[in-house]
Specification:
There is one protein chain. With about 280 residues, this protein is of the alpha/beta class. It has a domain of about 140 residues: Cytidine Deaminase, domain 2. It is about 30% helix and about 20% strand. It has six helices and twelve strands. The strands form three sheets. An eight-stranded mixed β-sheet has the order 11-10-9-8-4-5-3-12. It has a two-stranded antiparallel ribbon with strand order 1-2. The N terminus is likely disordered.
């Protein structure tokens, strides 16, 4: 890889980072979208070239919203993991997140880098999980600045298309796709015609209304009685009023309705009264 020259500041280091390492850093940063997370970068150094091949998440780090601090427990966990998994590698830098406020090195970040990662090839990786922006900061001469050239290495590079031997991912179909579509079409064909569905809906609503009316008729407390009357004489035809629900006369003392029946008054203007002479 070409090494970019910076006038008066020295050459920029060549940084190679594994794609899998970036995936792990992004996943760790997205696990907490409100406070910063941190960890260290594991790899190898060769003259002015740096290879980042793994990372270790910083457990038990002190988080304070806009900055993070490596504690003694954090370093104990880091060295224990490194000795167990990467005994032949070294710590080549660190990473942390800036959730929602961009990619840069704050005064606190610069203090950590100068005191714990002061080797000329050690770098600081910063990522913002909100915007997915990320950048790498390293030493260029005596100045700590954001590096302009970084190479991402894919270990699976060179693998031919169709040579993985992995099967095609299956969808939600249990069998052949064409067979499933045919079954779905048959189900649609078996559906009742539209006019029949509408008729059934109308009959269903009508039945519900009738049931509601009958329930109200028999259960409402109001009671209506019918007393048939002779239209000629104005007198009742039954001794007692009739309950329309049962069709039977209402129980009570006999002839209870005769006294209250209307009596037709004689007509004052009849013909007989007009033809009778008055007596002196």
């Amino acid at each position: 890889m070409r090494v970019r020259k910076h006038s008066g500041k020295g050459p920029q280091p060549a940084v190679f980072v594994e794609g899998e390492v970036l995936r792990q850093i992004r996943q760790h940063a997205r696990s907490n979208s409100k406070t910063e997370i941190c960890g260290v970068l594991i790899g190898t150094e060769d003259k002015n070239s740096l290879a980042i091949e793994a990372c270790i998440a910083g457990a038990n780090a002190t988080q304070a919203g806009t900055h993070v601090t490596f504690t003694q427990d954090t370093w104990a966990h880091i060295y224990q993991t490194k000795d167990a998994k990467y005994p032949d590698h070294r710590i080549v830098g660190w990473y942390h997140s800036h959730p929602g406020f961009g990619v840069f090195l704050s005064d606190h970040d610069t203090f950590i880098h100068k005191n714990f990662f002061s080797s000329p090839l050690q770098v600081a990786w910063v990522c913002d999980p909100h915007s997915d922006e990320e950048g790498c900061f390293g030493w260029v001469g005596q100045r700590l600045e954001r590096l302009s050239e970084i190479s991402v290495v894919d270990r699976k590079g060179g693998e031919g298309a169709g040579e993985t031997g992995k099967p095609e991912p299956m969808g939600n179909f249990d069998g052949n796709e064409e067979e499933d579509l045919a079954v779905e079409k048959q189900d649609r064909d078996k559906e009742a015609p539209r006019w029949l569905r509408i008729t059934f809906s109308v009959l269903s609503y009508t039945m519900v209304l009738m049931i509601g009316f009958l329930i109200a008729w028999f259960l409402l407390p109001a009671r209506v009685l019918i007393w048939p009357v002779d239209p000629q004489t104005g007198r009742p035809l039954t001794e007692r009023p009739i309950d329309p629900h049962t069709g039977l006369q209402v129980p009570g003392p006999p002839d209870s309705g005769k006294d209250s029946a209307p009596i037709e008054a004689p007509k004052s203007g009849s013909d007989k009264e007009k033809n009778v002479p008055r007596q002196k």
